[in-house]
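Aim 2 progress update. The chain analyzed this quarter is reproduced below.
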Amino acid sequence: MLALLDAWLLAPFEYGFMNRAAVAGLALSLAAPPLGVFLMLRGMSLIGDAMSHAILPGIALGFLFAGFSLPIMSLGGILSGLVVAVLAGSVSQMTGHREDSAMASFFLISLAAGVMLVSLGGSSVDLTHVLFGSVLAVDTTALLLIVGIATLIVLMLALIFRALVVECLDPLFLRGQGVRGGLVHGVFLGLVVLNLTAGFQTLGTLMAVGLMMLPATTARFWSKRLEGLIALAIVIALVANLGGLLLSFHLSLPSGPAIILVAGLAYILSALFGRHDSFMARHRLRAAPLESTSTD
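Predicted structure tokens:
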């Protein structure tokens, strides 16, 4: 039994590429879920998906100019994401339309432009790599970049944590303290862009948002407190990363989708059996009045 467990759980990490993938997953799991929690609390869950598409044209341009050079592609993704965020905010202010509708419009344009650029400059294999990533192909340069970006995100979140919480709960109070809510919002969106740029190498632009949002929405079924949501989301992301890597190694599955599917399985199980607002929790609430009536 111990030999079987060792073969399935420990032996794969004797390989260098699995170690690098695990460390990259650890870094992303510490940085992405807290952002997902705040996106969820601010009612901006789909903004994360929009931003994941917004970085695609910049990544595609970086690919056209420098091939699979992660620093250049990441720089292009960051610039592209920030430009789309600024454009969406500007259109929202000038026209009065909601920011999420403007963001949705720009992310569709960005997705089409990015896919077109990659298709024109590369093959279908290149397009698949950009869209879906390859966590098992993370090299030392990519690992250092991912860890560096994740560290920056965690440090910046720690700096703006109080302001971010207050902006979620009471933006007027934040304004009364002399802190501009728009500045906090802009910094937060910048961190989302950075996170998605770090995640595209391992999970691809279409999957990176999954590691940010699925652990956050899953944690909602188990905790109502902000600290609990963030801690649980990080743990769920870590388990999903390691579980997805092991499934990918043993069953020869694509690593990025395997990680997101493990996180998706956690979400489905939590929606059924979680402590708060799950199917079973609501069933228990409905059953409690009936039991008290029958005993009376």
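The mean pLDDT is 82. The two ends are 53 Å apart (CA to CA). These observations will guide the mutagenesis experiments scheduled for the next reporting period.
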